[in-house]
User: What shape does this take?
Amino acid sequence: MPSPIWRRRPTLQRQQVLGLLPLGVVMIVLFGGALALALLQSLGFAPWLGINSFPDVSYFIALWGGASFWWSLWFTLYYSLAATVIALVLAILLALGLTRAFPGRAVFGSLYKLPLVVPYAVGIALAVIMMGNGGVLSRLAFALGWIDDPAQFPLLLTTNAGWGVIAVYVWKQLPFMALAIHAVLISAGREQAEAAAVLGANRRQIFREITWPQIVPGIVSSTLICFAFNMGAFEAPFILGGGFPDTLPVMAWRYFNDADYTLQLQGMAVVVSIGLVAGMMIAVYLATYRRYERSLGRV
Amino acid sequence: MHLCRSVLFVAAFLASTTAVMADEAAAGFQDQILAGDMSWDDVLAQARVDGEVQFFYWGGDDNLNVWMDSVVAPAMAELGISLVANRITGTKDAVDLVIADAASGRTIGEGSVDAIWLNGENFYTLKQQDLLFGSFAQLLPNAANFEWDEADPRSQLNLRDFGTPTDGAEMPWSGEQYVCSANRAVLPVEQTPRTFEDLQAYLEVNPGKFAYIKPPHYLGNTFVQQVLYAFNPDGTGATPFQRSIEGLGAAELARLAAPGFEYLKDIEPLLLGGPQGAVRYPEDAAAAEGLFRNSEIHINCGFGLYAVATKRADGSYPQTAEEIIFPAGNMIKNKNYLAIPANAPNPAAALVFANYMSSVEAQVTKLDLVGYPAGIDPWKLDPADAAALEAAAPAHYGVTQDELDDNIAPDTNASLVEVIEATWLEYIERGSSLPLEEIVANAVANLAP
Assistant: This one.
């Protein structure tokens, strides 16, 4: 006998179908199609280039068998994770700060969102203009007589330490994360924290027991978006990175851009690898988060 | 419902028949013109029917873009053709488009690219894929402006593009020479290197003050090719590098290239960023120019016979920039071309366009306003035209045209370029510990079939 819940289970209404259709078509046809095509090509299917050795895993074997792939993977993960973690810590501090009153809060509250409307490319250009060896800071140092040649200015960009890449990501993503966390804090209200304070909890206890569980959903969603973006981003590591070994998206671009068009299949193997790694990491992250939510009894 | 379906059916049927008809008209035109059965007036008339020409070219030069819009477009409009200038960041994008069109079954009259400005590997790719319109260059009226006689060694620049026979499938458009510039504010004349050994000696005193663009960018490839010429163990310079990889063989190429690659490895720690332990090859000409402007590097190299004059004028080079003769005797000179793909949507308009671009008028204004050396050969022109061409040429700084002419070398065969760039990536960039012979052999084995 069907349960009442089963009976009340909503069915898709015509209006809902219409609402879901545009995104559904885009996701399935464009995104799904591109993914399927990438997978096919990485497995040797490109008859329009006169190549069809499907199924052929040699592109993956060649890619994963070389040390440079693993170095590239390491740099991709390092830039993505370092930027996400640094931005997150700063964003939590900023969001918490914004919940308190301080003089100029209204101005600062809108000012910090500025990087959100500035494109990444502009941020990258700013980094080059400011932090490059021929940049503004270097010229200032020259004007002050600290250095007498651009090479004497510390090499901040174009090294594999990736300070430039990480700086641009943090600059752009910190406001985004702070906005998401701040919104969660506002909607949760301060009543629980105040009640805990009245009951004698200290600031650390309040953060751990009240605030943290409140902001976790905001943290998870915003870090997921930023991390996934960083994994696939191309411009910042291409312009500000240290060259070989490049991050995986730059490596893929180099294969695509080579005059030898047959290297496109190798590039597709790189693209599929990025998808695999990012997908697995996000799956583990979400599974961990779900377990945490379950431990709180919220799911 | 029935009506709806039948309307769709009729529409689809009409669409398919018109496509076939357009296809046949364009194919008929192609057969006729290539067979020489068509007068130039007929081509002009057909071009007016086409109405437009889809030209794809690297859009990174403002002077060129302005010239294209203010000189070429009005001239084409007078011929009843509207010029659609598709500015792309890399020529390969247009080649990819041609390949993609062909893959989806679009043949003559149905593609999206009428003409591409290209040379070297991109032409080689189109030729290898059999995606060129056909041998049109010598059928155009302005073919008279070029040297086609094989007996004259100067014809080689029109007949061979990076060693690949052009077979008339592309029209020479500009000449170019690889020229290095020095910033006299930091590099005095007496310290100026003439050879690669000089450069190394200079870098030992001034570490980090030079960079070449990263292969497989063609500017980086060109630098590497010049190094290989200069260190050719037989002392025969560029000569053996004119042969194709099939003729030369991997082992012989490895033997010829070994000393050059040793040199490239030796100077790597002395290049930009090397002293700080983070060598970074610039990605493109714009990046290298920025480094040169900031005197992060003292010498900047690239294609551009008149680049110093143009760049001093527009402020992208310091006023202290001068041309230098480096590497002496190995400054690669080549031409670049206009090619018409096999699936050009407006083949007649493309031919008229290519003909206009090789006219004296177009070449003189291009030289004057853009500073790109002439693609036409002055000795084939009447004296007044040749004088106009000479008068339009921008100035040289620090060197004379004769010195530049005396130090030229030909390009490397396109089939070797891919092997050389793959070897550079493996041996220099990835720092492979395999012997060079094996790296070259692997690169040859991985060549596209």
Q: What stands out?
A: The longest strand of chain A covers residues 45-46.
